[in-house]
Design goal:
about 170 residues; transmembrane helix; flat; membrane; IFI6/IFI27-like_sf; mainly alpha; two-stranded antiparallel sheet
Length: about 170
Amino acid sequence: MSPSTAETTGSESAISIITILRTADAPGEALTSRLNEEVGAEGWSEWLAEQVLHTLEATLGEENMEPWGQALKDAYDSTIKLAQEEFKTLVEYVKEHPLEVAAGVLFSLVAFGVLARLMPWVLRLLGFGELGPVEGSFAARWQATYAGFVPKESLFSYLQRLGMIVTN
């Protein structure tokens, strides 16, 4: 199945946006202007934002930082430094409060278990049925806001898939 023209254009826009971010020397009005020009009159859509995010994830996973502009390098370096500091703080906290952390993990597991048991009931309550949204339900009203196009991998489509699997 070939991608639609809109998807191809969106993918090209995502790549262009990442290229702009990769080559920017500094954040600011000039960068914002270039990004707004690339996005165009249509503006940001959920789908375009997801494409940019996936492209950025692939970019950050690259070993070679040579093609990165200074703005992206600085943002990456400061984020890594902050993550390392937070991780150190977390490790120290765990060392100082092992029982509290263990209780928190245990409570989280119990909470997830309860949520898993309640999920079918909650999905039915919201109107996510095994054949699609139930007429007159919250899910039906939510689906109507998409005007016939539910974005792939959206929260709505995820809940609907769960409703079709879990509630039967």
